[in-house]
């Protein structure tokens, strides 16, 4: 076959092509390539901390125990990212890991700001010595702060914190309306209750009928203070009576 015949055949095939379709496909391919390049460049910009740095973090919410320095330290590494590559969930977790922070919510704000709303722990009691209880009866660990006022001292098994707090509130209310302040309450591993008044009097309440036994103490207390002795301990674990330990008697017994 001569070169002339080959050329003729190719010219015949080309004349049969739908050039509108071909140019349309080429145009579509170029558009797709252009969009892909634009998306690639946009992704580079969004993840470039120098191009879109986080310039500020706005902190809202009432704070008493969490300082600006603690927040800055918690977010130090995350602030090196761009506004859009920063994971708000990671920011939230970093803030909620701070000892006195109960909850944090984080959102982005254009052009270069993160807005944070913090809720601190609402502490209501000491728990088992070094830990704390919030108003929901949840245990948390946090360092001591000077601006925390006097709080009741509660103790018990770790999984009983909510029950201890609820019982404290019930017992404390009954005592308070009768002129007593409950300073501490504990639940033993055998589920026996022990209370301490602000006056130092210890109350042994046992495992049952706590409120009835507290009422019995309230009823008999006017008789106890008529004695020329200071009450150290009142054992209310009896069905109808009680046993009283006196301060002087306990001092003699300890010698």
What does this structure look like?
The protein is elongated, with a radius of gyration of 37 Å. The longest helix is centred in the first third of the chain and has 28 residues. About 4% of the residues have low confidence. The protein is an alpha/beta fold. The termini are far apart. The strands form 2 sheets. A 9-stranded mixed sheet has the order 6-5-4-7-8-9-10-11-12. It has 3 domains: 48 residues; 65 residues, Roll (Ubiquitin-like (UB roll)); 131 residues, Rossmann fold, CATH 3.40.50.11690. Helix 5 packs parallel to helix 6. It is a single-pass type II membrane protein. Part of a complex composed of FtsB, FtsL and FtsQ.
Query: Total number of β-strand segments?
Result: 12
CATH topology of the largest domain: Rossmann fold
Q: Which CATH class of the largest domain?
A: Alpha Beta
What is the overall shape? elongated
Beta-strand residue fraction: 15-25%
Helix content: 25-40%
Task: Give the H and E element order.
Answer: HHEHHEEEEEEHEEEHEEH
The overall number of domains is: 3
Q: In whole angstroms, how far apart are the ends? A: 129 Å
| CATH H-level homologous superfamily name of the largest domain | Cell division protein FtsQ/DivIB
Helix count, DSSP H or I runs of 4 or more residues = 7
Major sheet attributes: 9 strands, mixed
Whole-number average pLDDT? Answer: 82
Q: What is the level-2 CATH architecture name of the largest domain?
A: 3-Layer(aba) Sandwich
């Amino acid at each position: 076959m001569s070169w002339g015949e080959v050329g003729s055949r190719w010219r015949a095939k080309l004349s049969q092509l739908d050039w509108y379709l071909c140019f349309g496909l080429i145009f579509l391919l170029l558009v797709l390539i252009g969009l892909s390049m634009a998306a690639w460049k946009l992704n580079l910009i969004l993840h470039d901390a120098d191009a879109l740095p986080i310039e500020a973090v706005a902190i809202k919410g009432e704070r008493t125990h969490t300082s600006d320095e603690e927040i800055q330290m918690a977010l130090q590494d995350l602030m090196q990212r761009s506004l859009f590559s920063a994971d708000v969930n990671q920011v939230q977790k970093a803030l909620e890991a701070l000892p006195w922070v109960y909850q944090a919510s984080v959102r982005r704000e254009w052009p270069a700001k993160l807005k944070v709303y913090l809720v601190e722990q609402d502490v209501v009691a000491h728990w088992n010595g070094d830990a704390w209880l919030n108003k929901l009866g949840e245990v948390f660990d946090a360092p001591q702060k000077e601006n925390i006022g006097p709080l009741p001292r509660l103790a018990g098994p770790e999984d009983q914190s909510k029950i201890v707090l609820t019982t404290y509130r019930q017992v404390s209310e009954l005592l308070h309306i009768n002129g007593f302040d409950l300073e501490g309450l504990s639940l033993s591993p055998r589920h026996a209750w022990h209370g301490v008044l602000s006056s130092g009097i210890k109350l042994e309440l046992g495992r049952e009928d706590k409120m009835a036994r507290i009422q019995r103490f309230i009823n008999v207390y006017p008789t106890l203070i008529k004695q020329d002795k200071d009450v150290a301990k009142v054992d209310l674990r009896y069905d109808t009576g009680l046993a009283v330990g006196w301060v002087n008697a306990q001092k003699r017994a300890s010698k």
